[in-house]
Design brief:
Mean pLDDT: 96
CATH class of the largest domain: Alpha Beta
Helix content: 10-25%
Shape: globular
Number of domains: 2
Strand order of the largest sheet: 1-4-3-2
CATH superfamily of the largest domain: 2,3-Dihydroxybiphenyl 1,2-Dioxygenase, domain 1
Oligomer: single chain
CATH architecture of the largest domain: Roll
Protein name: VOC family protein
CATH topology of the largest domain: 2,3-Dihydroxybiphenyl 1,2-Dioxygenase, domain 1
Number of strands: 8
Low-confidence stretches: none
Pfam families: Glyoxalase_6 (PF18029)
Structural class: alpha/beta
Number of helices: 2
Largest sheet: 4 strands, mixed
């Protein structure tokens, strides 16, 4: 059996560099590759990273899901130690708080391209 390991989650974006800079600033992860239409980041602590690729036809998913609308395919879960401060930081960097919040200790956010991500405390 070949050895396999997850390298990154790739997010489509109309502006991959702009979205990468949002997550760079949010997570404090360095950009490792920055090419036209393709940007990569790696977690300095190791593990899988994030990559961003240009998709001119990207349509932000609907949250929560609605029949006949663009559906969310995945989302990122980001553990934080202070939910209120993390939400404020994400908003200051360009995210929006989603109107529907299903859990008390989780905040569903929408990044600048409309991808949902969750900030949570345990």
């Amino acid at each position: 059996m070949p050895q396999l390991s997850l390298s990154a989650t790739v997010l489509d974006a109309r502006d991959p560099r702009g979205l990468a800079h949002f997550y760079r600033d949010l997570l404090d992860w360095p950009v490792s590759t920055d090419e036209d239409g393709w940007v990569m980041q790696r977690d300095p602590a190791g593990g899988a990273g994030l990559s961003f690729q240009r998709e001119q036809l990207h349509v932000a998913p609907t949250w929560p899901a609605e029949d006949g609308r663009e559906q969310m395919q995945l989302h990122l879960d980001i553990h934080v130690d202070d939910l209120e401060t993390a939400v404020a930081r994400a908003v200051a960097l360009g995210a929006r708080l989603a109107s529907f919040q299903p859990q008390e200790h989780v905040r569903v956010m929408l990044d600048p391209e409309g991808h949902p991500f969750c900030l949570f405390v345990e």
